[in-house]
Amino acid sequence: AASLALSAVELLGLRPFAGVGLVLLWCSQRSPISLTAFWVRFGGFVTNVIYTIAYRRRHPNGDPHRKWLDFYQIHCAAHFEVNGSCQITTLARMAPPPTVEAVRGAALQLQRRHPLLRAALCRENGSSLNTPCCDMVFMDSLQGRDVEVLEHECTLDEAVEREQLDPLAPEVLGWRLAVCGEHLLLTYHHCFMDGVSVMTILEHLLEALDGPALKGCAEEALKGCPGEALKVCDGEALKGGVVEDVKGSTPEGEMAPPPRDDLPWYAPWVILPGLKELAALRAEGPPAWLRPAARAAPWGERRLKQARRTLDADITQRLRERCRKEGTTISGVLAAAACHVMAEVVGTRDPLRCKVQVNIRPDCQRDPHTLGNYLGNFRCTLAPEQPLWELARQHRAELQQHRRTGRHLILAVMPPYPYHMQLAFGEKSHPHPADHPGIGNDLGISNRGAFSLATQSHSITAVHWVRQHRGDSDTDFLLLNACSVNGVLCLTLCYKHPIVDEATIVAIADGLLDRLVVAAGVPEDVGAVGVAAGVALGGGATAAGTAADVAALPGVNVADYVAVP
């Protein structure tokens, strides 16, 4: 009966009510179930329906310059407003070094080109972000302001620390630029933007730095009001003054709808945690270690730590060709190598639990350059006893299986807390860093893909992601972020300190780099020559040695890495 009811509401187009049928279907398949849990879920979906109907009645035809937030985004925005969670900084090393004036001018052109980059978080009825039944929360591309561009005259690690601890402004949807020497820092809120969006922004930023204006855009439109500039420039490739439509563009400067609007019926909108819990969270304010007194602590006492490594373009190409020969991908070999390294460094033979982020733009039928948060997640388990290439192929097979079943889409719409945690939100206690046993066998992996970021006058040689852990989650103590820029593989390990000590992270980062070199089939006489290790934890480090040295490492089985004739 629940299945028939669910099909009926889907055919009738009453999508908000589909969640009620899903709850009934879920209840029919799980026994026993708490009556309280059922009514909590049912009440959440009723709230969702009321909110949706109320908004669409007030804005029946919509506004091309506005995009309303789904419940997941409201949930994240509420936590962002309270404790600044999901704030990520991207480090891009540029050649030649950028100047603040040039970056500021290019950023203004980007805001005219992409409405999302000028949008502001707005709400009606004068309440707060954590009362969705009363507030109409939306993004408005005409209410934002110019993006902030800062200049840091300090070390790169200190600049990253400042960017991470300085909360983003909601007036420009939470993104900011900064210049520190040869590096450009782009800090953004992960709820509204993902890594692929950041790479698109960097690509368009280079184009803006390479020319005086947006290629072909009328000067009058650029000097006019923001709304007119958006209508002229958004969603069009302007080449030589000829306007050419781009697949996936939106007319009249309209921002692309959220990815969850295109998801199938089995990925419904989600419920928020209780309003009382969010109100209590707001009343408590930021955690003690985020308050001004804690921010003034010395660098060594803070929790933001990362290790950055890069792999030479030639070796990366060798690795890519070897992956094609073995029937796997760079993401698969990264997960497999990380599994072996962590088993060796941490000293455990337990399976590695990986949470892998997936780009769902193809599933949502979006253009690859669409800005927004289009990330799905899937989990897989890798056993360190298996050979490296077998693990890599297993990783790829599980990803393909998740894509066929659409499970990664369901996880994409889930809030940061699973349902069982929403029911006991007030009772959930996060362990103190000193009480946590360590990183264990959990790893978060995100591979943004391969990009070419170079123009005639500017180029980006390396990109690294740094994520601040705000204490709002007791998972993902170790995150591995990867991307390929102009053929160079860039790796970043982010971790919580003092849960994980510096020596452990350096050992994991160096071990991962060494195994990738061996997996690429680099000859022994070449070894790791050409492998450049980026600045790690405030000091320079260089990965050196030969393939024979790597093979001599404890726990390395050469047969797992040697190419099959």
Q: Which fold name fills CATH's third level, the topology of the largest domain? A: Chloramphenicol Acetyltransferase
**Strands in their spatial order, largest beta sheet:** 10-16-15-13-11-12
Name of the CATH homologous superfamily of the largest domain: Nonribosomal peptide synthetase, condensation domain
| Termini Cα gap | 58 Å
Major sheet characteristics: 6 strands, mixed
Q: Any idea what the radius of gyration is?
A: 24 Å
Uncertain spans, ≥5 residues at pLDDT below 50?
126-134, 213-254, 258-279, 285-302, 410-437, 470-476, 524-565
Share of residues in helices: 25-40%
Question: What fraction of residues sit in β-strands?
Answer: 15-25%
Oligomer kind: single chain
Number of strands: 16
Overall average pLDDT: 65
- SS field, number of helical segments: 19
Commentary on this structure:
This protein has helices spanning 2-11, 18-29, 35-58, 71-83, 100-113, 156-165, 195-210, 219-223, 226-233, 275-284, 292-295, 313-326, 330-347, 388-405, 407-412, 419-423, 502-519, 547-551, 558-561; strands spanning 66-68, 87-95, 120-124, 136-140, 149-151, 175-180, 183-189, 236-239, 242-245, 304-311, 352-359, 375-382, 442-451, 459-467, 478-485, 488-496. The chain is built from 19 helices and 16 strands. With 565 residues, the chain is an alpha+beta fold. Strand 6 and strand 7 form a beta hairpin. The protein folds into 3 domains: 2-58, no CATH class; 66-294, 2-Layer Sandwich (Chloramphenicol Acetyltransferase); 304-419 and 432-561, Chloramphenicol Acetyltransferase (2-Layer Sandwich), CATH 3.30.559.30. The termini are far apart.
